Amino acid sequence: MRRNSLSFKIVTRIALLVTLICVLLTAFAILFLRRIQTNQVVGMMTRCRDDAGKLIDLSIDAYIREVEAISMRSDIREMDWDVQKEILIEEARRMGFESFEVGDMNGMAHSTHGNDIWVGGRSYYNKALSGVPNISDLVYDERYNKMVVVVSCPLYGEGGSVAGVISAVADASFTNAITSSVKLDYDGGIFIINDAGDKMAGVDYAGRTMLENNIHSGDYAPSGKFGQFRELQIKMIQEPSGLETFFMDGKEYFLSFVTVNGGRWHLGIIQNRAQALAVLSEIFFRMVLITVAAIVFGSLGGLFFARTLRPLRRVSASIKEIASGKADLTQRIRIKTEYEIGELVDGFNTFTEKLQSIMTVMKQSKESLSDAGTMLKSDTKNTISSIDAIIENIQATRMGTTLQFSSVEQTASAVHEIASNIESLERMVENQSSSVKVASGAVSAMIGNIEKVNASAEKMTDAFRRLEEKAQSGLRKQDDVSDKISVVGEQSKILGNANKTIREIASRTNMLAMNAAIEAAHAGASGKGFSVVADEIRKLSETSSAQSKEIGEQLSKIQDSIGQIIFASNESRLAFKNVSEEIQSTDYLVKEISSAMDEQHRDSEKINASLGSMNDSTDIVLSAVNEMSEGNAAILKEIQNLQSSTTDLKQNMDKMESGAEDIRSTGSALSEISERMSASIEDISGQVDKFQV
């Protein structure tokens, strides 16, 4: 099989395609299954961690409840150590504890192991005293020479208050026994640490006096091979739960953790990550085998398919033989086969026969086609020359039309301007006629008004004459009134003097009456009648005095009024005099106005006659302007018709020029086409001659 053959390419591409598909499917399957397997392992470890945490909490609670049950016994609550000791020794043996301790409120405790001890400073003891059952961290106890853990509960007295503490001491293996109940699916382990990092479970403390602490150990330094595990233990203390991965001793592990024992301890579960995901390795191996098998079968299929393409190589050889010779269209491919390849060969032979007949016809027609091309080329050149002559004539005619159009435009503009001037003249004549008519009417009205003013002036002259006579009469009467008022003023002065005399007489009479009354009093009974008369005289004098005083006041007011009347009378006399003088002046002015009105009446009649003549002339001018406007309208209409005809002629000439240009362009294109066609005919003739028919 040649490397550049179609069979080799098909086999190679099928093999590469199958390989690529298998690799992609394998990668996708591994990634997909890895994610699924990882999620399953994570979910399983999370459930295992949570179940283990619950189991450990339940185990711790079970031991605490055992100790609480013992503390609730009445014989224990009596706090009689002799009774308590035997019971607690038996319970320690039954439950697997090292010993029991019973302490009082002061911190002293009896122990079933031996001597009394002081426990007051221990945290688990103080916590139990506060009423909280608890389990302590691991601690080394010299009495037992080993690590122990203490379960403590409060002891309640009869009154219900805390009376002491009961504690059960257990070996350190106690916590390992609790964690050993948790079963793991893969290699790993379980451990418990407290908040300080000390391991509470997961370590064999037999014979050891110190707690193991990976956080503070030099072997677990951050830069050491266990540094990552140390950091995860710190994270266990800081977070309530989680799932992490880490490397240790060259292996990768899962670490799932959760808090237990009320948050004081932290449970960690370690499992080998490679074992958890071991199923992926098996899947990967099987996918590789499937890929190799697919590549082998794909290559075999390609080889089988290549065998079916052998007839095509024979077809290719026959085609090259026809193409590399003298274009002999009489040759045919002789291959007998079925399927699509046989149909391809038959189709190629049919195509060759059809091409042979076509080339035979083309050889027969090439000479006549060449003559037709030569004639077309010659006729096209003659047509272009004629079109150029037509275009020159059209352009000359178009220039004349353009000049005519410009002249018509100028004439139309001049006629429009004349029409505009005639319209302006007509409006001015009409305005003048209207103004003359209005002025004539105004002058006629003014003449009538002047006549009315003259009549009114004559009436005013008569009225002013009568008014002056009445003013003179009023002035004389005002003088009479002034004289009479002066007389009344003098008489009022006389009355004032008489009233003053009467007031003096009344005053003297009053004095005489008072003296007479005094004398009548001196006379006694004989002067009683005289006293009555004197009293009446006194009253009459007082009345006269009061009346005289009132008359004096009235006379004073009358004199004041007379003074005011005299002043007003003088002012009125002066006013009558001024009015008379003003009337005389006004009468003179009225006479002057009447004289001016007469003169203006005569001038207005002359103006009215002139306006009548002007109005007749304006009517004649207006009639002439109307005739001019009608003649100009007729001229303007003819100019517009001429302008429209010129515009149409210009547009037609533009269209003719544009059409001639289009014809010329078409002729040029046709000439180019005829030249190209002649060249193509020559090329075709050369190619047709190469074929052997």
Automatic annotation (TrEMBL):
<dbReference type="InterPro" id="IPR004089">
    <property type="entry name" value="MCPsignal_dom"/>
</dbReference>
<keyword id="KW-0812">Transmembrane</keyword>
<keyword id="KW-0807">Transducer</keyword>
<keyword id="KW-0472">Membrane</keyword>
<dbReference type="InterPro" id="IPR003660">
    <property type="entry name" value="HAMP_dom"/>
</dbReference>
<feature type="domain" description="HAMP">
    <location>
        <begin position="306"/>
        <end position="360"/>
    </location>
</feature>
<dbReference type="GO" id="GO:0007165">
    <property type="term" value="P:signal transduction"/>
</dbReference>
<feature type="transmembrane region" description="Helical">
    <location>
        <begin position="283"/>
        <end position="306"/>
    </location>
</feature>
<comment type="similarity">
    <text>Belongs to the methyl-accepting chemotaxis (MCP) protein family.</text>
</comment>
<dbReference type="Pfam" id="PF00672">
    <property type="entry name" value="HAMP"/>
</dbReference>
<dbReference type="GO" id="GO:0016020">
    <property type="term" value="C:membrane"/>
</dbReference>
<feature type="domain" description="Methyl-accepting transducer">
    <location>
        <begin position="407"/>
        <end position="629"/>
    </location>
</feature>
<dbReference type="Pfam" id="PF00015">
    <property type="entry name" value="MCPsignal"/>
</dbReference>
<keyword id="KW-1133">Transmembrane helix</keyword>
<protein>
    <submittedName>
        <fullName>Methyl-accepting chemotaxis sensory transducer</fullName>
    </submittedName>
</protein>
